[in-house]
Request: fold
Amino acid sequence: MSAEALAKESLSRPSAQAWEAQRRRDKLLLQLRRAGVYALAILIAVWILFPILLIANMAFSTPQDVRAFPKSFFPNPISLDSINFFLSTEGIIRATGNSIFVALLAVVLSSLLAVPGGYAIARYVFPGRDAIRLVMLSVRAFPIVVLAVPLAVIFLQLGLFDQPFTLALMHTALTLPTTVLVISSVFASVPYEFEEAAQVFGCTPLQAFWQVVLPLALPGIAASAILTFVLSWNEVFAAILLTLSNRTLPAHILYNLDKSSDPFKFAAAFVMLVPSMIFIFFIRRYLFNMWGQINK
Amino acid sequence: MQRAKWTPYLLLLPSLIYLAIFFLYPMTQAFQLAFTREGQSLNLRAEAAADSAVTGNLALQTEVRVIERQQIDEVLPNGATRPIFWYYVSGTDANGSTVEGWVNQRSVFIENRRTSETARVTSGEAVREWTFDHLNRMLTDFRFGTAVSTTLLLMVLIIPAQFVLAIIMALVLQSQIRGSSLFLYIYAIPLGISDLVAGILWFAIFTQRGFLNSLLVSAGFLDLPFIFIQADHMAWMITIIVLAEIWRATSIVMVIVVSGLQAIPRDYLEAGEVFGAGLWQRLRYIILPLLKPSLQVALILRTILAFQVFAVVIAITGGDIVTVLSNETFRWYDPGRFNNPSVAAVYAGFIMIISLAISLFYMRAVRSQEESVKAA
Reply:
């Protein structure tokens, strides 16, 4: 109900019935608005989920059904033939292994580097702190394309070409600024008093960190590690430049895309999609905290 | 908060060193790749020996005058000897000054070793020399123009749509409907989806035997499938890329906008409501102005990412008819195609400069707008 309407009503001293009618009208309006919001929410959810359902449908159809036209919108019969065909194609298992190795190494390296760095930014006041934060903020959006070309040439000169661990080094560099900022926001959310209390009770600063702060920060650190894993698992430009015969899964698929059949492509998309969806599910609660903190 | 002298620097040092190695060093390497090339230049020696001091150097193909010659007998492993000539030559170097010195016969072409008065430089030591050749090669490549215009076109089409959709998604999530945590998860799913997968998903919908054609043909709208993805249908291919990118990359903007919304004090919105502001007015006069810093961050991030659009384009169009800057970078680098990292480095530098310029432009634009508001 608008303010003017309220004022008018109170002046004219409405009867109890008029009040009741007005209240009912307002309630209806509110319900309509809520229904509108729900409709919008569901519409957007369908927009996001529909392509995923279509690709899942393709992944669980037989290769014959995938090639058929017009296509059916439900798999009939449900079959793992397409996925099996994709997984048994030469090089796929190896590429998947490379992808997992690269992503895990990137997670370990970036966590090892970022935990002390993030702690320093969260807990200490020191000259240059803002400058360092600014550097991290600006290099976090640095274009992958720009770094990948010279790094590929450097690794080639060093005789380290085509080795998955070099790609992990590169992914670590790309995610490190974000990881430092995210982890510093995680540490900032652990009250300093806890650490002080631990030290009062006789812990050394290192013990206080190890036994009190780290366990409390662990879920947040795990969330940032998962984000790093997903970024590395999905990254394709640096992967395709830095590796040749030891390609990661997305690089391998992209490089052979023009020679691939539809059942292969769609099963590939589904297989790459599933881990990311699961990981995003686990870190959904942390997304806003992480981004909220590092965008200030 | 603690005050300490060295601890924080010590803790940050590994990260900073790592970033320096993997950001600064490649940048200098990229610059070198882009603006130098392998060349040869002949060193002139003070005496007729390969290890004597260098008195100057000459570019390849320089004509030189032979002033003096000296025959040295080289002993071969089998005990025989062969004559090797050294010439004292005079020529004009790259700077236009005359240089003189001894050269080995191997480095020059000479008609007659014993009598000729002139020679031509044919080989020398490897050097890196400055060049704009790679830059010229990029600028004159027939794909360069279309790559730039397509990248910019995609950016202009994608980013505004993403912002509108992201703000709508964020407002829906913030309206405290039931099941909002489920909606939040669904809206966040594309965050974890790679551009390659997104490209394949939308390819599956729009390909000749894809879902859209299946629907249109079975519903009787079309007799034969319509071929969206082909060279004659540029507009359709751009549309599909735009849809795929909006579908995939709006979530990141949404997350930033939601974090920005959460930072707006409830009081402001309630005050707006009390004074009778409708949704549109609240959006226009309260929410959007307070969201500006978040939107700016998202805009810069999205713009930089827009210059890197890559796998979506290849997955949907194959990357030959519709091409973008990052695809050209890869085409020049790829050992299976052009195999020229130098031109790829020029492309990379171009992408960096253009994304930096646009980010700075955004920041300046926002600041000058603020200043004019203050002045008014």
Q: What stands out?
A: Chain B touches chain A through 103 residues (CB under 8 Å).
